[in-house]
Every structure is written in structure tokens, then in C-alpha cells.
Specification:
The protein has an 8-stranded mixed β-sheet. Strands 1-2-3 form a 3-stranded antiparallel β-sheet, with no helix packed on it. Strands 16-17-18 form a 3-stranded antiparallel β-sheet. It has helices spanning about 90, 105-115, 130-145, 160-165, 180-190, 195-205, 225-235, 265-275, 290, and strands at about 5, 10-15, 20-25, 35, 40-45, 50, 50-55, 70-75, 100-105, 120-125, 150-155, 170-175, 210-215, 245-250, 280-285, 295, 300-305, 310-315, 315, 320. The protein is of the alpha/beta class. The chain has one domain: Aldolase class I (TIM Barrel). Helix content is about 25%, strand content about 25%. It is built from 9 helices and 20 strands. α2 crosses α3, α4 packs parallel to α6 (about 195-205) and α7 (about 225-235) crosses α8.
């Protein structure tokens, strides 16, 4: 098994993510699905998933990756993040035996995608870095069958597995959960630096199309200073054409006593990002036509007008703005 170290004390260190869990025989990692079995890290959830669903690609959210196409989505159990506000906590925090789930091989997943004319397959619902082998084996078959691959991930992964992971991903939405070490430490039980390294690498060193999402929790990561710091980092490290989605939080898991995000909070972040020069800014979960629409970075006219996931206008010809012929960033 790749991404592991055999330690002198009989333990095995899993090196798939920055937790670098040191596991005794029979012990599971933080994620619950990577386990020391006979001094080998085994993915105990391989081939098992929480179900498959057909979604619009915009739901991932990806707005610049083959708009209006269908995507087959699936995930497993567990997560390597410890987010107290997790929106999918019933999956990511579930400690059940993965073998009680649906069993679907990579070959069967490909056949289902073909049957329902899905252009892409998404590794989502929980972080695919922890079901790395299942995701990569499926992604390799996707390449052979002209099916695109999409990852929805926190980006909390080590450098070497990240190289292999993004080699087989055509698109990804990376969840930049906030923009302070304190937020990550307190609310995600993690560190922000590996996430920023992953985003920087994926955007600048791979051919994978990247979009970012930040879910805003009022009083935690929504201050104008933090939004400005995030946008500054994006502009300085990624440029001005990586799409950013500001999405709404709803009370879940350990944050059930919190208030859901107001639309005004999303609009504030949207306006800050736009005013700072980021070309493609969106709001998610709570949205309207204005904040769901893609505008040409040159002439500023609406080239993909949306109401949430519903497309109202499509003013693109051969990947270019039909008004001024400026090439649109993304895959079309």
C-alpha cells in the first residue's frame, strides 16, 4: 500500500493526509476507514458507498465545468476533517461498519454513468482523499471511457498523494473553510497551511479545473477583514480567474444552536470579492439571478445567466463570449 511508513514499534503511519496517524495493529485512523491490518494500511470502505445520485454539475458547485451536464455522485463513510459544523455529519461522522453500505465496484459505477448519460463522476459527500484507492481506481476507468472526474474535497492532504490524486481529476471544488488558523484549529480540528498548499498546487501545477467554496458562518469566518485576507491570498497566489462560491451555513451537528447564514452575509462577501478584482464570484445555497450569473471578464455582460442551478441564458460560442469573443475560463 502506498502512503504509509512502517515504524520500529510495530505501528504503521498513514501518510495520506497531514494527520499522519500512527496506528497499532487493528487500529483505525481519525477518518475511521483507513486501518492497520497486518502492518498494512487498508481502506476498509473500498467498494462500499452511501449510494449514488445523479446531480446537475452546478450542485457540486462547479459553474465553469461543462455547465448543465449531469454528474454521477457518490461517497463513503468517514472524514479526515473534524468540522463541528459539518453539513454531511451523518455520513462523515458515521462510525458504522462500511460493509453495511451498498457495494458498487469501479466497473459498475462506470456502467451506471454510461446508462444515465452522465458526463462526469463526482467523488463527494465525504472527502475522497480518505477513500483514495477507490476514487483513483474509478478515475482511471473514467479516463478509459471518456468520462470526466470531479473531486469535492477539503484539500487537507499530503503533497505526494495530492500529486497522484489531481493527476486523475479533471475538475475539483476545494473547500476553503475559512481564512484563519484559529478557525481551522477550533472548528475543524485541523490546520490551514496544508489546504493552502493543496489549492496552490492544484491551480498552478496541474491541468485540473479548480473552483473554491467558502461556507460562511456568522461570527466565525465572515468578517470583512477575513474575507479580504482570503481574496488577497487568492489574487496573489492563484490569479483573478479562479471561481469562488460563498455558500450559506445551516445548523448541523455541533452547531445546531447557531443561526443559518443570512443572504446579506453572502452578498457582503460577494461584493468584497468583486470589488477586489476576482472575476468569477457566486453565492450558493442562498442565491439569486445576479449572484448566480457568470459575467464576461472583459465586457461584463452576462454570458451564463442562472437562477440557482437552472440556466436561463447561455451566451457562449466555442468557449468564448458571444458579445466580445473573450475566452471564458473553464471547460465548456
Amino acid at each position: 500500500m502506498k502512503y504509509q511508513n512502517i515504524l520500529p514499534n510495530g505501528k504503521v503511519q498513514c501518510t495520506i493526509c497531514p494527520r499522519n496517524c500512527r496506528l497499532s495493529e487493528g487500529q483505525e485512523g481519525f477518518c475511521h476507514v483507513r486501518k492497520n491490518v497486518n502492518q498494512n494500511i487498508e481502506l476498509v470502505s473500498y467498494g462500499y458507498n452511501t449510494g449514488l445520485a445523479i446531480d446537475p454539475i452546478e450542485k457540486k458547485p462547479l459553474y465553469h465545468f461543462f455547465p448543465t451536464s449531469s454528474i454521477l455522485s457518490f461517497g463513503t463513510l468517514g472524514c479526515n476533517m473534524g468540522c463541528l459544523f459539518c453539513q454531511n455529519w451523518n455520513i462523515s461522522k458515521n462510525k458504522s461498519d462500511p460493509k453495511k453500505l451498498n457495494k458498487t465496484s469501479p466497473d459498475e459505477i462506470i456502467e451506471i454513468a454510461k446508462k444515465y448519460n452522465c458526463k462526469s463522476i463526482a467523488f463527494t459527500y465525504n472527502d475522497p482523499i480518505i477513500f483514495f484507492e477507490y476514487a483513483i481506481d474509478t478515475a482511471k476507468l473514467c479516463r478509459e471511457n471518456n468520462i470526466k472526474t470531479v473531486a469535492v474535497t477539503s484539500g487537507f492532504m499530503n503533497k505526494e498523494p495530492a500529486k497522484e490524486f489531481f493527476e486523475f481529476m479533471d475538475g475539483a471544488n476545494i473547500d476553503l473553510k475559512g481564512f484563519s488558523q484559529n478557525f481551522y484549529k477550533k472548528n475543524c480540528l485541523a490546520k490551514i497551511e496544508p489546504v493552502l498548499e493543496t489549492i496552490n498546487y492544484a491551480v498552478n501545477k496541474t491541468n485540473c479545473h479548480i473552483e473554491l467554496t467558502t461556507m460562511l458562518i456568522e461570527g466565525e469566518n465572515d468578517s470583512p477583514d477575513e474575507i479580504e485576507a482570503e481574496c488577497n491570498w487568492i489574487l496573489e497566489n492563484l490569479g483573478d480567474c479562479v471561481p469562488i462560491h460563498f455558500s450559506a451555513f445551516f445548523p448541523r451537528y455541533k452547531f445546531e444552536d447557531r443561526n443559518p447564514t443570512n443572504f446579506e452575509t453572502l452578498i457582503n462577501a460577494y461584493n468584497i470579492a468583486k470589488s477586489m478584482g476576482i472575476k468569477y464570484v457566486y453565492t450558493g445555497n442562498l442565491s439569486n439571478i445576479e449572484t448566480s450569473t457568470t459575467y464576461c471578464k472583459n465586457c461584463r455582460k452576462p454570458i451564463i445567466k442562472r437562477n440557482g442551478y437552472q440556466m436561463l441564458e447561455y451566451n457562449i460560442e466555442n468557449g468564448k463570449c458571444k458579445y466580445c469573443s473573450t475566452k471564458l475560463d473553464g471547460r465548456f
